[in-house]
């Protein structure tokens, strides 16, 4: 279900059959009622863990333990909030070994302990790719834990090693992979996993050639990301964890019940891509998956010395403070030029330019810092939004028509959204502007948070949007402030 589905002829009847239960959606049902019934059928997200409400720091990629700790220490030295920091891919000895490479990550337990003392959770990347040279390849192959091919070469991906994806539809394979991650990550204090490559990203995309434990790929590939997340959810739950969240690059109906935080992948660093992310986030929420995020600033092509990119980064960062999860990431080109390096025959990946809030100039740093603290100020409000999502299936970010179904123009608005029931957010998604038009739904009055002006609903207004402001309007009667002290 996406926003397009709700734009259909609302005089029609819709039926959804799941197992032994019939769900009937009638012309009189509101979007909230439809969403509740849909999440009754597919499952609801757990309550968001507290660390998920704050700020996540990430880049491609912190190359070693000391580099990561240096960033965390500096963040806290400056008095800035941070709830999570991410160790990206290729920190491992080899794909499929599910462990830290010992030279660059010599003492993960001490690292995680220090980060916890700073109030920061450690997130670690896991890939489902198993290198043919890895220590577990033979055992996994013998037990049927790898995705098979019906013809030709069995390799699925040849980037940074010849690899085959593990079969996440196989219960034994799911347990095997989590058990290795438990030993090498969880037992060292890590509780949050970044489950990348979850589509899975075969190359080439000959889906008719792949076969799972659950059946031919053409029949069941879409459940791969659900089962990938389920393996870690089940393992963490068995280990005694109460608050479970996994960052996943792909999702399917039901992913949300396994604590999935979906992000939109390796998107371009451009205002066009930013506009596309707004639609992606709204559709994800209406599809029953309320935990969503994008790479702030985009992933591909952001040069931190380019003024145009700095403007994009600032606008995106401000918008990120009003997304379900507030997470910085990106490759930040050009990559550092380092000689090609191998450890024990395994090629080591380099990294992109700096991607911390102080990396984009002192003037921009002050703006980014403002939004770090603004997110903290909104924490109680966001916590309540997450509670509602868990209990009713209500999206955290949603189209205007979700809350104002009787307003025809709300159904037509695609460049603004509701963040919870009381905040209307209108991201700036164009370069070089200082104001933008915002439609305010009818049926209530609205306060422009940056200026304090009061507007009647049902009209389009010109909102103030200098570089340090994202237009946010507060619904009448709401006990909340944004820019106000």
Describe the structure.
This protein folds into three domains: 40 residues, no CATH class; 337 residues, Glycosidases (TIM Barrel); 87 residues, Golgi alpha-mannosidase II (Immunoglobulin-like). Helices cover 30% and strands 18% of the residues. The protein has 14 helices and 25 strands. The strands form seven sheets. An eight-stranded parallel beta sheet has the order 14-13-12-9-5-4-3-15. Strands 18-19-20-25-22-23 form a six-stranded antiparallel beta sheet. Strands 7-10-11 form a three-stranded antiparallel beta sheet. The longest helix has 16 residues. The chain is globular, with a radius of gyration of 23 Å.
Q: First CA to last CA: what distance?
A: 39 Å
Provide the structure class.
alpha/beta
User: In total, how many domains does the architecture comprise?
Assistant: 3
Q: Assign the CATH superfamily of the largest domain.
A: Glycosidases
What is the top-level CATH class of the largest domain? Alpha Beta
Mean model confidence by pLDDT: 93
CATH domain topology of the largest domain: TIM Barrel
Tally the helices.
14
Q: What would you say the CATH architecture of the largest domain is? A: Alpha-Beta Barrel
Widest beta sheet: strand line-up: 14-13-12-9-5-4-3-15
Tell me the Rg in angstroms.
23 Å
- Shape estimate: globular
Q: Count the E strands.
A: 25
Note the beta-strand portion. Answer: 15-25%
- Helical residues, percent: 25-40%
Largest sheet: 8 strands, parallel
Low-confidence stretches: 1-25
């Amino acid at each position: 279900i996406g926003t397009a589905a709700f734009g259909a002829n609302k005089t029609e009847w819709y039926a959804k059959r799941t197992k032994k239960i019939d769900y009937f959606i009638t012309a009189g049902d509101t979007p909230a009622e439809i969403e509740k019934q849909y999440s009754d059928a597919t499952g609801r997200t757990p309550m968001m863990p507290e660390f998920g409400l704050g700020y996540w720091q990430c880049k491609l990629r912190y190359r070693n333990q000391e580099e990561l700790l240096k960033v965390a220490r500096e963040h806290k030295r400056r008095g800035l909030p941070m709830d999570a920091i991410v160790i990206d891919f290729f920190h491992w000895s080899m794909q499929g070994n599910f462990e830290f490479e010992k030279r660059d990550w010599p003492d993960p337990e001490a690292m995680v302990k220090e980060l916890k003392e700073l109030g920061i959770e450690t997130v670690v990347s896991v890939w489902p790719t198993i290198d043919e040279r890895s220590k577990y390849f033979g055992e996994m192959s013998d037990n049927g834990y790898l995705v098979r091919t019906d013809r030709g070469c069995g390799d699925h991906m040849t980037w940074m090693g010849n690899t085959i994806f593990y079969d996440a539809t196989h219960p034994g394979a799911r347990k095997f992979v989590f058990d290795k991650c438990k030993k090498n990550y969880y037992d060292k204090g890590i509780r949050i996993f970044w489950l990348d490559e979850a589509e899975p990203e075969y190359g080439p995309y000959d889906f008719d050639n792949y076969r799972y434990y659950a059946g031919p790929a053409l029949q069941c590939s879409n459940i791969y990301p659900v089962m990938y997340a389920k393996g870690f959810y089940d393992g963490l739950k068995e280990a005694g964890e109460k608050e479970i969240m996994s960052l996943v690059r792909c999702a399917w109906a039901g992913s949300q019940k396994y604590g999935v935080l979906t992000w939109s992948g390796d998107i371009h660093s451009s205002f066009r891509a930013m506009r596309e992310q707004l639609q992606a986030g709204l559709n994800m929420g209406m599809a029953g998956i309320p935990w969503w995020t994008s790479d702030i600033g985009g992933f591909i092509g952001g040069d931190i010395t380019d003024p145009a990119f700095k403007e994009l980064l600032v606008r995106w960062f401000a918008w990120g403070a009003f997304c379900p999860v507030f997470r910085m990431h990106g490759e930040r080109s050009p990559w550092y030029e380092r000689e090609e390096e191998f450890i024990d025959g395994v090629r080591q990946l380099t990294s992109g330019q700096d991607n911390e809030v102080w990396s984009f100039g002192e003037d921009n740093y002050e703006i980014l810092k403002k939004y770090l603290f603004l997110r903290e100020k909104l924490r109680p409000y966001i916590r309540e939004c997450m509670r509602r999502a868990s209990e009713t299936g209500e999206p955290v970010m949603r189209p205007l028509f979700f809350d104002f179904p009787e307003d025809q123009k709300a159904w037509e608005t695609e460049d603004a959204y509701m963040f919870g029931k009381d905040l209307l957010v209108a991201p700036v998604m164009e370069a070089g502007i200082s104001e933008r038009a915002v439609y305010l739904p009818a049926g209530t009055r609205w306060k422009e948070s940056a200026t304090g002006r009061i507007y009647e609903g049902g009209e389009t207004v010109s909102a103030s949007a200098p570089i340090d402001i994202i237009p946010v309007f507060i619904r009448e009667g709401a006990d909340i402030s944004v820019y106000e002290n």
